[in-house]
Amino acid sequence: MTNIMRYRMSLDLTGFREKFEVPDTCEIHQLESKDIDALARMEIEAYQDTLDFLLRPELQSFDSCKSFLAGMFAGKIGRGRFLKNLSFKILCNSTLCGAIYTFENGKIVHIADLLIAPYCRRRGLGSALLAYSLHSYKAAGYRQVALAVTATNRTAIQLYKKFGFEIEKSFPVQLKERR
Length: 179
Prior knowledge:
- It is built from five helices and eight strands.
- By secondary structure, it is α+β, with helices and mostly antiparallel strands.
- Strands 1, 2, 3, 4, 5, 6, 7 and 8 form an eight-stranded mixed sheet that branches.
- The N and C termini lie close together (12 Å).
C-alpha cells in the first residue's frame, strides 16, 4: 500500500475582502439536483489523470459518481451537513465549467471539492468561483473555512494560498493497490 500526503488548509473569513470578477460570458448559480449527471461527467473528466481519482472510489465509474452525488444532495453522504444553498456551479456560455461542494461541520464550513472542467481551465474560473463562495460563506455568518487537498496538487494549493488559506497540517491517506 502507498501513502499519499494531503494537507488540511484553513482560512479565517473575518478579514476576507478579496475582490473578484466573473467573466462576462459566465454566471454562478446554486447547484441543483438536476445537475447531477453533468457533475458526475465533469468529476470524472477533471480527476481521471490525478491521484485523487485513485483515492476516491466514487470516481471510478459514471454510475458510482452519480450515486455518490445523489447521496450528497440527499444529505446521506459527507462529513457534516451538505449546504445546498452554499454549493455553486459556474456556467460559461451555458456550459457547466466548474462546481464547489460545501458542508457544515459545527461552525466551520468545509469545502469538500472545488473542480473546474479540463476544457475550462486557465481562465480564472476557479478564482471567481472560490471568491464568490468565500463571500457567500462570510455573508451567511461563517468565520472559518477548511478543506483538504492532495499535496501534489500544486495548482490548487497555489489558488488556495492566493486567497489566504494556510496549511494547518499534513496527513497520509492510504492508497490501496488495485488488482
